[in-house]
Amino acid sequence: MEKALKFFDIYPKVVPAGKTVTIYVRPLYEHVKFSEGEEYEVLYYPMERVSVHGEYQYQMPQLVKVKKGVLEIEQFFAGEQEHMFVINDLNEEMEPIRIRIYSVEEDLFNKRPYLGDLNTQSYYSDGEESPAFVAASARDRGLDFISITDHHQYKPSLEAIERFEKVEIDLLIVPGEKIHLPDNPVHILNFGGENSLNEFVEEHEDDYYLQVKAIAKNLSDIKDNQTRFLTASSIWAFERIRKLNGLGVFCHPYWEVWTGYYVSRTVIDYFYKHKIFDAIELLSGYYDHEEYANTLQIARYYEALKESEDIPIVGVSDAHKCSEDDLLGNYFTVVFADELSKDNIIKNIKDLYSVAVSSIPGEHQRAFGPFRLVRYTQYLLREVIPLHKKLCELEGAQMFAHLGNDRRARRQLSIMQGQTESLYNRLFAKPTNIK
Fold first, then answer.
1. What is the distance between the alpha carbons of residues 358 and 364, in angstroms, rounded to a whole number?
2. Beta strands 331-337 and 354-358: pairing type?
């Protein structure tokens, strides 16, 4: 964590492009306090050199006087980019302070970044912990939304929701399941669907086969009979999930099983060409020895962008346990949405306002997806998300306490409710800061 983030309260951090905004820099501790009434030199650098002064002409230094212990820096922010300020003590009693601000266009400025995982398992399938424990672990890892997507099962996700329904939490728990259809090896997520598709197929298997075979008759360009059927089956599933008001996600395209990748090249190519899915896992929860599969998924996605820019993406952990050395929190999605609700998350993923993030311990965090969102997300991961995660960890601890029947947890969770929203309200410029 950089010195500025550790020792100073800096707000707002996200501002509208093309506006003049006042930035406040307030020392948090005595050893970094400003000298009251003294002037400090402030240098300004737009990182992508988009500036009213020209790309290689720099703004003249400002002299800013400390008022009530705070520096107030007024600046015009041109374009969508990161900006750096260097604050120099003219008496040379304090090291230079570097602070970073990001300006975005109106569409992004009106959205907030929500971190989530659409693919996790509990002990009801091949996971190790209860659905509620997985949910609490997700909050502890800094996530804003989570779906428990057990194999063949929808009810575990409902159990997680019910376990916390009598306490106030800011984690959004979304119903979900991992779908396994007869004679179709493709793994598909039903994220947020209002009912279980697995249960529907179990109860209406004859109808499933009739409808899939009807779809298959129109796929004569696929020569292999098994490939034609599983493609038709997947088309049927994605259409059904949409009718359930859910998001259908094509899982881990380059997952290696004993006999090769679990689906053929023909399947992957057809899915991309005809966009039969609502979203695709750009990053999946692979261990170190499998990580090359994510490299292939990223490369295939960027190749597909040559033909179409309309490819919604997500990142998931596919976690089967929540221990510190496992995958939960290592891969996730950042969705830029107007509010934290299931429908809004789904809408903004479909509208291409999401990126996939790799956050493996000991490695640099990396975002993948549309360039505009990636550069913004990289800023947030460094300057904003660490502050957000601290608050999530506090709430996660109380969620665990609630699961352990600690009666004090209910009150603590009630007190904490809304703290992450309040943080974003502080870090995103208010109308009173904008000219």
1. 8
2. antiparallel
Q: Extract the tokens encoding 325.
A: 């050395």
Mean pLDDT of 279-288: 95
Instruction: Using a cut of 0.85, tell me whether the model's pTM lies above it.
Output: yes
- Per CATH, the number for 3-109 is 2.60.40.1930
For the chain, domain boundaries: 3-109, 112-395
| CA–CA gap between residue 74 and residue 411 (Å, rounded) | 41
| pLDDT at 431 > cutoff 80 | yes
Determine the Cα–Cα distance for residues 44 and 82; give it in Å rounded to an integer.
11
What digits encode the pLDDT tens for the residues 115-130?
999 999 999 999 999 9
Give me the pLDDT at residue 1, please: 52
Residue 323: per-residue pLDDT:
78
Question: For the chain, what is the mean pLDDT?
Answer: 96
Asked, as a colleague might, if the bond just before 185 is cis with ω within 30 of 0, I would say no
Beta 8-11 vs 97-104: how paired, if at all? Answer: unpaired
Structure tokens at 397: 């601890």
How far is 311 from 304, CA to CA, in rounded Å?
A: 8
| Three-state SS at 426 | helix
Question: Which region holds residue 275: left if phi is over 0, alpha if psi is between -120 and 50, else beta?
Answer: left
Whether 433 shows a pLDDT value over 80: the answer reads: yes
pLDDT one-digit tens code per residue, 27-64: 999 999 999 999 999 999 999 999 999 999 999 999 99
Rounded to the nearest 5 percent, the helix, strand and coil shares of the chain are 35, 30, 35
In three-state secondary structure terms, 402 is helix
CATH 3.20.20.140 fits 112-395, yes or no: yes
**Alpha carbon separation from 138 to 11, 79, 160, 322, 327 (Å, rounded):** 27, 35, 12, 8, 11
Nearest 5°: the CA angle 10, 27, 93 is: 120
The secondary structure of 347-415 as a DSSP string is HHHHTT-EEEEE--TTS--EEES-HHHHHHHHHHHHHTHHHHHHHHHHHHHHHHHHHTT-THHHHHHHH
* Unique residue bearing structure tokens 């029947």: 405
Residue 114 · residue 144 · CB < 8 Å: yes
Give alpha helix (H) positions in 316-370. Answer: 342-350
